Amino acid sequence: MATRLTTPCSSSSTNFSPSSSFNNEAKLFTRFISMPRKYGLSTWVSHIHSKTHARKHFLLNSSNEHPLNAFSLQDGLAGNPLAKERIEPPGKERPSIPMSEAEKEESTLSITVVGASGDLANKKIFPALFALFYEDCLPENFTVFGFARTKLTDEELRNMISKTLTCRIDKRENCDDKMDQFLKRCFYQAGQYNSEESFLELDKKLKEKEAGKLSNRLFYLSIPPNIFVDVVRCASHRASSANGWTRVIVEKPFGRDSESSGELTRCLKQYLTEDQIFRIDHYLGKELVENLSVLRFSNLVFEPLWSRNYIRNVQLIFSEDFGTEGRGGYFDNYGIIRDIMQNHLLQILALFAMETPVSLEAEDIRNEKVKVLRSMKPLKLEDVIVGQYKGHGKGGKSYPAYTDDPTVPKDSLTPTFAAAALFINNARWDGIPFLMKAGKALHVKRAEIRVQFRHVPGNLYKRNFGTDLDKATNELVLRVQPDEAIYLKINNKVPGLGMRLDRSDLNLLYRARYPKEIPDAYERLLLDAIEGERRLFIRSDELDAAWALFTPLLRELEEKKIFPELYPYGSRGPVGAHYLAAKHNVRWGDLSGEIYE
Amino acid sequence: MAALSSIHCRSYSYSPFLFSSSSSSINGQQFQRINFSSSGISKRFLPAKLFSQSRKNSYHGVVLMQDGAVAMPVNPVENEASFKKVKDGLLSSITSAEELKETAGFDVNKDESTVIITVVGASGDLAKKKIFPALFALYYEDCLPKHFTVFGYARSKMTDAELRNMVSKTLTCRIDKRENCGEKMDQFLKRCFYDSGQYDSEENFTQLDKKLKEHEGGRLSNRLFYLSIPPNIFIDAVRCASMSASSANGWTRVIVEKPFGRDSESSAALTKALKQYLEEDQIFRIDHYLGKELVENLSVLRFSNLIFEPLWSRQYIRNVQLIFSEDFGTEGRGGYFDHYGIIRDIMQNHLLQILALFAMETPVSLDAEDIRNEKVKVLRSMRPIRLEDVVIGQYKSHIKGGITYPAYTDDKTVPKDSLTPTFAAAALFIDNARWDGVPFLMKAGKALHSKRAEIRVQFRHVPGNLYNRNFGTDLDRATNELVIRVQPDEAIYLKINNKVPGLGMRLDCSNLNLHYAARYSKEIPDAYERLLLDAIEGERRLFIRSDELDAAWSLFTPVLKELEEKKIIPEYYPYGSRGPVGAHYLAARYNVKWGDLGAEQ
Questions:
Q1: Which residues pair with B116 in a beta bridge?
Q2: Which PANTHER family does the record associate with it (chain B) (predicted)?
Q3: What percent of chain A has pLDDT over 70?
Q4: Active-site residue flag, A578
Q5: Residues A565-574: what's their mean pLDDT?
Q6: Contact residues for B422 (Cβ-Cβ < 8 A; gap 6+)
Q7: Which residues partner with B441 through β-bridges?
Q8: Nearest chain A Cα distance for residue B445, angstroms
Q9: How far is CA B217 from the centre of its chain?
Q10: Given phi > 0 = left and psi -120 to 50 = alpha, else beta, which region is B217?
């Protein structure tokens, strides 16, 4: 099976041949050095790792403006079993970077998790960092700092973190060793989020670890939005890197409407430049979302289909099978539209619908995404359905209503479900409904993109069949979770003497084809932030456009106090979603009794 | 999973509601069912008064009616009521009330019609291996009418019991339906009779006619002759059958197997001779490849999936490959083959037919005549084949693992100096708006490394591929490919480029696939079953019309003649190998890579 190319980081590369690749590397190396830099703070040389740590050359990728090189460089390191098995060793594409000990010693990376005692940090960030470490994706000199208000010793932090670390199923060996090594790199600093002194202290500690080497610093803000700006101010003033880069990863929510988001951006920009801000949308880190562009742009068979001429509608579906479960305090202030639609689903929509970018570089892709967002028709209230789950007894068990959650006001109108029909007023998509649906406490947990194609014009088989073949149109499904899969529903003939048509799937089930565990979205995004790859992060103007689309609607919903349609916990959601779909002549693909249900 | 209807007698095991009915069905019901559907089935099957029915309507009727009929199995006892039900089911599709009446009129006759299938050349190999088993399978699946009889006819002297004995050795039941198999076999064998006679003797056929009449017992008689005999006696047998054993009041049809001549002239002569005794629509030229499941599916894929519609032209398709290979040689039976060679044996018929189906424009309807019209148009648009666009090969002996495999010319039935190709590859072009410049590559061979038949559609590269810039490898080579594997292991898959899961950006070629064995656990019927049933039902879609045959021969005859006149020496390739390398050079000339010889599989 021919494969091509480029895996970043990852374990030892078996086909690595230093002597033969030297020239190549040298060339690449030169290119790097001569590359224009955005940061002006560091020299490229210093980013580069030594060949004695052949597994870690990926550091080279910290170039911000060269995903191009980043890709191919990374390839050399592809050493996971899959890669070995399926990649032809393309000596040329596996450069590595030999360089002197001196060079490698000079750069360090500190990742400071601000809000280290929080849930996200424990469940996602530290495990993702460990996974990156395990896969040899982190640079040689890296340090992880936890920062929070709680007083903790380093030991206590390590203890806390270690509970959530796991190794991938297919990589058990050395797991404990690796864990120990990782934990030894973890430190803790307690302090107030708005205290410049605390950050000064942190800076001191960071400097200790950096020991005078080139310092690159990544701050992961895993804290409530109201203290974002304080932390950014303190970190920027007191704990910025003097000679390397400083980047800040921010999690949603990015405001709750155009104004607050604009305000947040403005505040952040007082202390940070645009390219220091990494707004994370972890859905963009999902494997199949990444694959979306690959599918579109590297398969000719999809090219002619990707427009209003062939596509009848697109559905973006997100559902969770649990409610707020006692932690609705934050959620109640935002609601499902802000929590899921305005960011995750809209981002996927933009990626799906964008024109072909000039290149795969972050700015080119984000430019195209913004164009989509700005072409969108304003959302009308009648094109949105909101719902809220109510209590439900099933099988002797009773499931709580949303308003049963003690952290939620009894009279809350916050939607836990929403469906919306969106339109893109451009030449490619005019008139095509993009339906979004997101909800909590539904019957399944799933996230998928469904593309329904038009009917076959003048279908020959229609004359002979009682059933309406126009309903049995082709459908392309990208299932993001669970069980990543791509499948294309086609009509085919049931084997046998008769002429009976059937819908089958041409499918690619990831689990079957790629037995390896698929990395968590956070791993990818953290790595990208470390490498300065901004493709999957949201730029300020994207964020503005996204809010501009949803803000008027959200305001109207709230001002008019629109009552959500109540639906039972664990159900398929309010029926209003079907009427919304029907209005635009669409049928939800996920509620059709097909086999993947 | 909703099935989209229109069910033949065969498919019921898939639909729960049908299953119940079939389990209790007896022949009578089944026959009725067939009868109902036969308003479309064929003119000849029906009493004369139905002949006026238009073909279009009749086809239209077939599928739907069968659907209705199968869905509501007719119980003989409540005949009236059930017929009404069926009628109701049909109302939507049948346009004229008159037609309905005719169908109803026919219903009265139902007990009076019989079908006799006479296998001429009953002691031959094909008959034993394919025809009798296919007939039994049809019987087992209740696809044959109530009053059917199978006659074996050949020169050897045999009793009925001997024939039954011979036939019984090759009958098997489908894997998924073992029950009652023995019983069913016995019942089937009781319907089998034998008559011996010369193929060119009208008296012998008169004798056969007498026997047939006995079995028909004065009912409406429909007769199907299956000529499983060497081509040189086709015409004699047709003459005798037509003169002395035609049905007096029903239809008479003749199934003819290849070879249909060996070039334009001999084929035309054969057709002319056949037409002395038969009408065009009595002649059923069988090409059993057209009866293969996935070949049938080809049209379904094309015409009932929007996603393939824009792709099906020179704009997106770079080349099409039609590949046939066998993993054995002539094995001592090369006498017939040596006279024809692989081009006539496989390419001119099977592969060319598939090509025509693949490349045809959308027909007006699924009617046999509409489809065959479109196929003829493709064949007639084809550029004459030039000698340099053909590579021929012949296998030579080869020793592998201590076993010696013989050369073609080691076959005792083959002349030592034979130049007959056992392998051929050819590049063909269709000079029409849809396909101008797209190479259609054919490859067929014996004694190759694998047994396979498939259609490969290679798509063009992605223009301005974004990913090309970032990858050293040439993504333009990793284009999409649609593969329809006809045998073995029926499957459809589409090769796509996707991202390897993981932190990097590494592309991989995966298959979106539909593996028939996994999706459809039932055994797929043999091509002969389908074709026999179609012949009985008068469905001509999968049979080759005379003008199609003419067009096919006129495409290949000049190059065949040139090959023979110039005594082109075939390129030798070892038994069990991948064939002569010449095929690669031929492909390379048209910038094609054979899809079946990649690293894959």
A1: B149, B223
A2: GLUCOSE-6-PHOSPHATE 1-DEHYDROGENASE 2, CHLOROPLASTIC, GLUCOSE-6-PHOSPHATE 1-DEHYDROGENASE G6PD
A3: 79
A4: no
A5: 93
A6: B329, B330, B337, B341, B342, B393, B394, B395, B408, B445, B446, B447, B570
A7: B321, B427
A8: 25
A9: 33
A10: left
- Region of residue B218 (phi > 0: left; psi between -120 and 50: alpha; otherwise: beta): left
Tell me the catalytic residues of B. Answer: 350
Q: What is the rounded distance in angstroms from the CA atom of residue B77 to the CA atom of residue B87?
A: 17
Residue A59 carries which side chain, given as an amino acid letter?
L
Coil, strand or helix at A229: helix
CA A78 – CA A11 distance, rounded (Å):
6
CB atoms within 10 A of CB B217: 10
Neighbours of B579 (CB within 10 A): 27
CB-based contact B271:B259 (threshold 8 Å): no
Q: Which whole-number Å values give the CA distances from B287 to B263, B346, B352, B423, B503, in the listed order?
A: 17, 10, 11, 20, 52
Strand order across the A277-280 sheet: A186-190, A142-148, A107-114, A214-221, A246-250, A277-280, A537-538
Contact flag B493-A506 (C-beta cutoff 8 Å): yes
Check CB contact of A395 with chain B, cutoff 8 Å: no
Query: In 3-state terms, chain A is what percent helix, strand and coil (to 5)?
Result: 45, 20, 35
- The answer to whether B127 touches B121, Cβ cutoff 8 Å, is yes
Out of A2, A309, A476, the one facing B478 most closely (by C-beta) is A2
What is the C-alpha separation between B37 and B552, in angstroms, rounded? 33
- Most confident range, picked from A230-244, A246-260, B421-435: B421-435
User: What CA–CA distance (Å, rounded) separates B382 from B555?
Assistant: 7
Amino acid letter, residue A525: L
The catalytic residue among A47, A57, A66, A344 is: A344
The answer to whether the beta carbons of residues A507 and A312 sit under 8 Å apart is: no
Residues 277-306 of A with CB under 8 A from B: 287, 290-291, 293-295, 297-301, 303-305
- For residues A536 and B335, is the Cβ–Cβ distance under 8 A? no
Q: What is the DSSP letter of B461?
A: P
CA-angle at A317, arms to A312 and A318, nearest 5°: 170
Counting DSSP H helices and E strands in chain B, the numbers are: 20, 18
Closest CA to B506 of A277, A215, A76: A76
The Cβ of residue B98 has, within 10 Å, a number of other Cβ atoms equal to 11
The encoded tokens of residue B108 equal 């009265």
Q: Write the single-letter amino acid at A199.
A: F
Across the interface, of A304, A466, A493, the residue whose CB is closest to B64 is: A466
**Interchain proximity B4–A1, CB inside 8 Å:** no
Contact (CB<8Å) A461/B303: yes
% of chain A with per-residue pLDDT over 90? 50
ipTM: 0.71
CA distance B143 to chain A (A): 9
**Residue A205 pLDDT:** 92
Report residue A165: phi and psi, to 5°: -80, 140
Residue owning tokens 């003008």? B547
Contact residues on chain B for A490, CB-CB shorter than 8 A = 301, 305, 307, 492, 514
Q: How far is CA A553 from the centre of its chain?
A: 25
Q: What are the structure tokens assigned to B414, written together?
A: 């083959």
Ranges assigned E (strand) in B337-406:
390-396, 398-400, 403-405
- Rounded to whole angstroms, how far apart are CA atoms A467 and A535? 45
**In terms of residues, how long is chain B?**
601
Place of tokens 């072409």: A375
Asked which of B65-74, B189-198, B201-210, B317-326 is least confident by mean pLDDT, the reply is B65-74
Q: Which of A91-95, A415-419, A571-575, B186-190 has the highest mean pLDDT?
A: A415-419
Distances (CA, A) of A373 to A306, A334, A353, A558, A575: 17, 21, 10, 23, 28
- The one-letter amino acid code at B579 reads G
Residue A58: CB atoms within 10 A of its CB come to 28
CB-CB contact of A472 with A465 (8 Å) = no
